[in-house]
Amino acid sequence: MTPPKRLPAEAGELAARHQLGALQAEFAPKPIGRVLVALHIFLTVHLLAMLVLPGLLYYWWLRRLPNFSRKQAAKRLFLFEHGLIVHPQFGAGATVLRWESVRLFQDITQTFVNGVPGPTTYRYSVVGPGITSATITEFYDNPQTWGPWMQHAVVRAQGQTSLEAVIEGRTVNFGPHTLSSTGLHTRGKGELPWSDLQECRVAAGRVRVMRAGASSPWSDDALSDIANLHLFLTLVGNLAPR
Which residues does 235 contact at the CB level (< 8 Å), separation at least 6? Predict the structure, then answer.
């Protein structure tokens, strides 16, 4: 996690225009290690020596990595008090979103090779009003920090208003689930009254809702399907009987 620095002019103008507040953190693209850099250079040179076109295509592919592209290395993920600014991994420009109006989806996948843990992929989809959206991946360094930070930012920005909406008789939608003052509504299942909810837990990449007295889940959904996951879990924890 890089300490906040002075914002570049473009980011500063966007932050001021969208009233994002104070800069909280800045994340740069994650460079690959020296061994991999040396291997890529070796392969590029040998491909160019044998066949020019494959070598040029391979070099063009390498330019998606910050080690081989100044433009890629200059991209940033800025997290502010009231929103974010992010440069896309592919393409130009910057996307601005405010925490109070986003729907945040997370998809974290741990790969295994012959039973041995491999790389973990991180994909956060931040969807704003209209067609504004951004996809943020492990292209940016330290997703174990910026991912949960964004989830908590959504809770801070939307938690109180969402809870008040439910208490006042309105509903709040989280994808497959909708919360109301009477219970948890799940697509294809109907309503589970709060008095019948035994537990809502996260396990093995899924959200499982247990009905009191039942041995199998009342609903079982992938984490990646739940919008604003941490906000959903926080509200269920506040609304369910203790």
Answer: 159, 162, 163, 166, 172, 179
**Residue that terminates a domain, selected from 39, 74, 109:** 74
User: Rounded to a whole number, what is the distance in angstroms from the first to the last CA of the chain?
Assistant: 37
pLDDT tens digits, 117-160: 778 899 999 999 988 999 999 999 999 999 999 999 999 999 99
pTM assigned to the model: 0.85
Q: What is the pLDDT of residues 54-94, one digit of tens each?
A: 555 555 555 567 766 788 889 999 999 999 999 999 888 99
Q: Give the amino acid at 235.
A: L
Q: Among all chains, which residue has been given the structure tokens 């604003």?
A: 228
3-state secondary structure of 62: helix
Q: In this structure, what token pair is assigned to residue 186? A: 């799940």
27, 2 in Cβ contact below 8 A? yes
In a domain, 180, yes or no: yes
Other beta carbons within 10 Å of 56: 13
